[in-house]
Amino acid sequence: MENITSKNIAKEWRCCVLIPTYNNAQTLAEVVTKSLLYCNDVCVINDGSTDSTLEILAQFPQIKVHSYTQNKGKGVALNEGFDFARKQGYNYAIAIDSDGQHYPDDIPKFLDQLANHPNAIIIGARNMETTENVPTKSSFGNKFSNFWFRLETGIDLPDTQSGFRLYPIAAMKDMRFLTVKYEFEIEVMVRCAWADMEVIPIPIKVYYPPAEERVSHFRPFQDFTRISVLNTFLVLWTFLYIKPRNFVRLFQKKKISEIAETYLFRTHESPLVKASSVALGAFMGIAPFWGFQMLIVVFFAWIFKLNKALALLVSNISIPPMIPIILYFSYKMGAIWMPDNHLEISFSSNLDLNDIHRNFMQYLVGSLTLASAVAILSGGITFVWVNIKKNKPNE
User: Fold this and answer.
1) Least confident of 133-137, 178-182, 187-191, 322-326
2) Any bridge partners for residue 204, and if so which?
3) What contacts 21, CB < 8 A, 6 or more positions away?
4) DSSP state, residue 354
5) CB atoms near residue 39 (< 10 Å)
6) 122 with 225, same domain?
7) Backbone phi and psi for residue 275, each to the nearest 5 degrees, phi listed first
8) Is residue 202 domain-resident?
9) Of 144, 158, 171, 152, whose CA–CA distance to 204 is shortest?
């Protein structure tokens, strides 16, 4: 009954099972056979296999096969698979690895999520702590990847490296990706999260054979290097473009009162944590760390277990319209510490970063003083405000 229901849901949503494969002849037939139990529409992308893959696929005339002779990497196989599936008329694709690691009887779990999450990437989250024979590099790599994904998107996922996923391929049709190997699975998640698609996990089973039986095409040094390069680019783009873009969108969509409700009152943190988060954001937004404020904010918020979203929000005090004001008061504060050797500066909307070069020491000392004063003031006001709101009886 479950199989029939699963097949009907897949047909209703125009969802296929997508299997990228490269030299997994020993497990491919079983993965295809079991996938067909839960979905009538199976597409296999043969990524230049040199074993008996083609002969095995010929045994399944009911499936759709896209094959090419040169091995191009998992990222290319998935990307070509998305295009191939869209051309066949599918709107969704459940990608499953061909090495037998995943259990096709988990396919219905993905399909059950479609009604409530029709525009989401659904990630099959493995339990790496209780599964036997998990390679050390896989466990470390997953934790490493989870951290960077959270930094780049603000989304906390238990498993960002699972290859068992449902992709909304119709909604992704205009997206263009940069990567071609294993790092593609990270890029596609981050890019979709940036495009305001949901990224949600569901628990799945996973099987790791003993080390002597395991076949893996993952190359630890080369692939970890490629993943690190990708994360470097994604983090830079996050703080140079995505975070400022989201900040602008926030003020376009919400009133100040709604923002305060979301970040100050609807979280579980104590008033001290919220006040400290505001103080950190205010200090780093004004302090002379131009270009690196957001990275430093996230680092210290993580170290001290503060509200990263709130700290990042407040750090945007240094948006372009505020720069002349910050520069002016920084010079004024610096003049207090340097009464005999300071530069008089008049306020103007034309003040910009070039003015920093004029008596740099006055600016440096003044900006740190201003940052400290604003941090203490804003943190104090936040602490009092949150406590009053917290203790105020509901009307």
Assistant:
1) 133-137
2) none
3) 28, 44, 45, 46, 47, 49, 53, 77, 98
4) G
5) 22
6) yes
7) -65, -40
8) yes
9) 158
Same domain, yes or no, for 213 and 134?
Answer: yes
HSE of 235 in the Cβ direction (CA atoms, 13 Å)?
20
List, for residues 369-390, the tens digit of each pLDDT value. Answer: 999 999 999 999 989 988 887 7
Of 212, 238, 264, at which residue does a domain stop? 238
Return the exposure string of 367-378: e unless at least 16 CB atoms fall within 10 Å of the residue's CB, then b: bbbbbbebbeeb
Q: How far apart are CA 32 and CA 386, in angstroms?
A: 56
Contact in structure between 311 and 277 (CB atoms under 8 Å): yes
User: Residue 282 in contact with residue 374, Cβ under 8 Å?
Assistant: yes
Same domain, 16 and 115: yes
How many residues does the structure list for the chain? Answer: 395
In the chain, the number of structural domains is 2
Domain that holds residue 17: 2-238
Q: How far is CA 109 from the centre of its chain?
A: 22
What is d(CA 180, CA 72) in angstroms, rounded to the nearest whole number?
Answer: 7
248 falls within a domain? no
Torsion sign (Cα): 178, 182, 187, 188: positive
Q: What is the Cα 178 distance to its own chain's centre?
A: 16
Rounded Cα–Cα distance for residues 331 and 380 (Å): 24
Q: Do residue 59 and residue 191 come from a single domain? A: yes
Structure tokens at 370: 């201003």
- What CATH number did the domain enclosing 51 receive? 3.90.550.10
Cα–Cα distance measured from residue 326 to residue 117, given in angstroms and rounded to the nearest whole number: 44
Crossing angle between the packed helical segments 184-194 and 136-153, to the nearest 10 degrees: 20
Q: Is residue 244 part of a domain?
A: no
Decide: 136 and 70 in contact? Cβ < 8 Å: no
Per-residue pLDDT tens digits for 12-49: 999 999 999 999 999 999 999 999 999 999 999 999 99
Mean pLDDT is highest, among 5-9, 135-139, 307-311, 362-366, for: 5-9
Please give the structure tokens belonging to residue 314: 């407040």
